[in-house]
Specification:
The protein is α+β, with helices and mostly antiparallel strands. Helix content is 40%, strand content 28%.
C-alpha cells in the first residue's frame, strides 16, 4: 500500500508531486503529444532504454508506435482505450487528453524483468486496483501513529462521505460521527481496537455536507509475520435504504401492536354496550361516549339521513362533537361522502382527521358513525378496518333494537306493495300452476332454513308439484291435500319473510295470483321506512308500492298474540300445532291422519302427538290463564 499512499498524498495541482507519484508507478508510463514523448517514468526509461534525447515516439518505441499512434487518433478525448499487441506481449492502456495522451504499458509488454519479479508486481497491481475499485469504502489506519489516524481511503469512501482524500488522511475516523451516532456502537468499536479483534457495527454517520447516512462499519486488525498489529483496515457500506426500511417496518409493527392493544379493549367495550343497551338511543349514546374516551380519539357522533330536510341529523355525540347538529348532504364532509358511497371515508374537518363509517346492516341504512382523531394524524387502512368492524357491530345492535320495536311499538307504518318478480316463489308458482296462494306462517328449520306455509286453491297437489319442478330454486312440498285446496310448504322463495324480519318489518299478508303477489307489512314508525322500501325495490325488480298508512295499534293484535304464544312454544311444538290446524286435523271427519302429519315433520307418530298435546296445553293457558291450566 506504500506506493498507493505515496501517490495520493501529493497536493492537488502540484506538478512536482505528480511527477514523483508517477515515478513510483511500476508500470512503464509515457506521455506523448504530436508523436513526441514529453515524459517517461523510471519504469519506462528502464524498459525501453529511453534517454533524455529520445523524444521521438517512433524511434523510442519501435514495434509499438504504429499501433499506438492509430489507437490514439481513434480514441475520444477524455476516454480510455485498451491496445493488445499481436505477439505474446501484453497490451497498453491509452488515456486520451486534449493536448496528448498517456500510455501505460503492462509489465508483460517488455522483457526487462524476470518472471518472479513480474509475478510479484502483477499481484501487487491487482491488490492495489481491487482496493481502489472496490464498491465499498475502504480505509487503512496506523495504530503506531498518535490517535490511530487514517493513512489511506479509496474512491468509494470519498464518494460515500463527500470528503476528499487530503481532508481525511491524518485524522481519526471518528470525524464522521455526530449527535445521533450510537454511543453503544462507538464504544464497541473502541473496545475491539483496544483488544485487537474484528468488529462490525451499524451507526449513523454524517457526510461532509451534514446529511445523515447509515454506515455498516467493519474493522479488522492487519498483522505482520510476527503477529504484531501494523494497521487496521475498515470497510464502510452505506446501508441507509435498508436501515430506513427496517426502521419503518419496526415503527409500523409497533404502531400496529399499539392499535391492536388499544382497540381490543374498545371492541370489547362497544360489544358490551351493543349487547346491554335497552334501546337505540341508549346504544348510540354509550357507544359515542366510549369511543370519545379512547386514547387516539377525542370525539365521536352518530347521524342519520333526513330525507325531508336533505341533511344528516346528529342523533348522539360525545367529546369534541360536530360543529353543528345538521350537516347538509351537499356539504364537503366525510360523513356525506360515506353515505353516498356506502364505504368508509377519511378526511379532515377543522384541522383534525375524521373517519366516517356507514352504519348498515343487511342493506338497511341506519346512518353514519364519525370518529375524530385527537390530532391531525394519518388513519391508515388497518385502523379503518378495525373501526369498520365496530361500525358493523353497532349497526347490528341498532337493527336488533329496531326489530324488537315491532312487537313493542303502537306506532307503525302499514305498507302495501305488489311484486311481479318471478324470483319470488309465490309469484312464479301462481303463474305456472294458474292458482291462488295465501300466506299462513313461516317455519324456521335446522340450519337457518325458512319454509313458508301457503294455502293454495285452484290447483291439485300433483299440478303444484309438477309446476314447481319446472321453476329454478323453488321447492314445493304438499303437506295436506283436501277437496277445496292444498296446504303446501315452499322453500326457495328468496326468504322474504325472514329478510323483512331482520330489518324490523313484520309480514302481515301475502296473496299471489296470476303471476303477481300483493304483500302487506308493518314497519315501526321510528324505523327507517324509506331505506327498507328502497331495499325491497332493489331486491325485486318491478316492485310497485301501493300504499303507505300510518296508524296506532289498538290493544294486542292477533299477530301479536300469536307471536307471544310462539315464544312459549318450541319449534317442534309450534310445527305440530300449526300443521294439525292447517291440515284439518281438528275437523271431522279428519282429512289427514296423525301419521301423515308426523311424516311431514320427519318424526314418529307418538312424538308428533306428544308435541301436539304440549302445544295444546300452552294454547289453553294463553287463553284461560294459569288458574285453569289443570282443569
Amino acid at each position: 500500500m506504500d506506493d498507493v499512499d505515496a501517490d495520493r498524498r501529493g497536493n492537488v495541482g502540484d506538478p512536482a508531486a505528480a511527477a514523483r507519484a508517477l515515478e513510483h508507478v511500476v508500470d512503464p508510463l509515457v506521455a506523448v503529444a504530436d508523436g513526441t514523448i514529453t515524459y517517461a517514468n523510471e519504469a519506462a526509461r528502464d524498459a525501453f532504454g529511453i534517454g533524455e534525447a529520445d523524444r521521438d515516439a517512433a524511434t523510442a518505441l519501435p514495434g509499438y508506435w504504429d499501433r499506438l499512434a492509430t489507437a490514439i487518433d481513434e480514441t475520444t478525448v477524455g476516454t480510455v482505450r485498451r491496445v493488445d499487441f499481436d505477439d505474446d506481449r501484453q497490451g497498453a492502456r491509452i488515456h486520451r487528453g486534449v493536448d496528448g495522451a498517456t500510455v501505460t504499458f503492462d509489465r508483460g509488454a517488455t522483457d526487462a524483468d524476470d518472471e518472479g519479479a513480474l509475478a510479484g508486481t502483477r499481484d501487487r497491481l491487482v491488490k492495489d486496483r481491487a482496493l481502489e475499485e472496490a464498491p465499498v469504502g475502504v480505509t487503512i489506519s496506523d495504530p503506531d501513529m498518535e490517535d490511530n489516524p487514517l493513512v489511506y481511503v479509496n474512491e468509494a469512501y470519498e464518494e460515500m462521505t463527500g470528503y476528499e482524500y487530503d481532508e481525511v488522511v491524518g485524522r481519526n475516523c471518528r470525524f464522521l460521527q455526530g449527535e445521533d451516532s450510537s454511543e453503544a456502537a462507538i464504544a464497541e468499536m473502541a473496545a475491539a481496537v483496544a483488544e485487537d479483534h474484528p468488529v462490525t457495527v451499524e451507526l449513523k454517520n454524517y457526510r461532509k455536507d451534514g446529511t445523515e447516512f447509515w454506515n455498516e462499519v467493519t474493522i479488522a486488525p492487519v498483522r505482520n509475520e510476527d503477529g504484531e498489529v501494523t494497521n487496521y483496515v475498515g470497510f464502510q457500506n452505506d446501508i441507509t435504504a435498508r436501515k430506513e426500511a427496517e426502521l419503518a417496518l419496526g415503527e409500523r409493527t409497533e404502531e400496529l401492536e399499539y392499535i391492536l392493544d388499544r382497540v381490543e379493549g374498545l371492541i370489547q367495550d362497544v360489544t358490551g354496550v351493543v349487547a346491554g343497551s335497552t334501546d337505540r338511543s341508549e346504544l348510540e349514546s354509550e357507544v359515542c361516549d366510549r369511543i370519545a374516551t379512547e386514547a387516539g380519539y377525542d370525539g365521536a357522533w352518530i347521524g342519520e339521513r333526513n330525507p325531508a330536510t336533505g341533511t344528516i341529523d346528529v342523533r348522539s355525540s360525545a367529546g369534541t362533537g360536530p360543529d353543528r347538529q345538521r350537516i347538509e348532504t351537499g356539504a364537503d364532509h366525510p360523513a356525506v361522502e360515506t353515505l353516498e358511497a356506502t364505504e368508509p371515508t377519511v378526511g379532515t374537518v377543522d384541522g383534525r382527521t375524521c373517519v366516517a363509517l356507514p352504519l348498515s346492516y343487511n342493506g338497511i341504512e341506519y346512518g353514519v358513525l364519525a370518529v375524530r382523531a385527537d390530532r391531525d394524524r394519518d388513519v391508515d387502512e388497518r385502523e379503518t378496518v378495525i373501526l369498520s368492524a365496530l361500525a358493523r357491530s353497532i349497526a347490528s345492535g341498532i337493527n336488533a333494537r329496531e326489530t324488537s320495536r315491532v312487537l313493542a311499538t303502537d306506532a307503525v307504518v302499514a305498507v302495501e306493495l305488489e311484486l311481479a318478480d318471478r324470483s319470488f316463489a309465490p309469484t312464479a308458482l301462481s303463474s305456472a300452476a294458474d292458482c291462488r296462494l295465501e300466506y299462513r306462517r313461516s317455519v324456521h328449520r335446522t340450519g337457518d332454513e325458512t319454509a313458508s306455509l301457503f294455502t293454495v286453491t285452484g290447483a291439485t297437489g300433483e299440478e303444484l308439484t309438477a309446476s314447481a319442478a319446472d321453476l329454478d330454486g323453488v321447492d314445493c312440498r304438499v303437506v295436506v291435500e283436501r277437496d277445496d285446496g292444498c296446504l303446501v310448504e315452499l322453500t326457495g322463495d328468496s326468504g322474504l319473510v325472514g329478510w323483512l324480519s331482520e330489518r324490523g318489518a313484520r309480514t302481515q299478508a301475502i296473496e299471489a295470483e296470476d303471476g303477481r303477489a300483493r304483500v302487506t307489512l308493518e314497519i315501526p314508525r321510528s324505523a327507517n321506512v324509506r331505506s327498507i322500501v328502497e331495499a325491497l325495490e332493489d331486491r325485486y325488480a318491478g316492485t310497485d308500492i301501493r300504499s303507505f298508512r300510518q296508524r296506532e295499534r289498538d290493544g294486542e293484535t292477533r299477530q301479536e298474540f300469536a307471536a307471544r304464544l310462539e315464544e312459549e312454544l318450541t319449534d317442534r311444538q309450534f310445527g305440530a300445532l300449526q300443521r294439525a290446524y292447517l291440515g284439518g286435523y281438528f275437523e271431522w271427519p279428519r282429512p289427514t291422519t296423525g301419521e301423515e302429519l308426523a311424516q311431514s315433520m320427519g318424526v314418529s307418530r307418538p312424538t308428533f302427538h306428544e308435541h301436539l298435546r304440549t302445544a295444546e296445553a300452552k294454547l289453553c293457558r294463553a287463553f284461560f290463564g294459569d288458574a285453569y291450566s289443570s282443569s
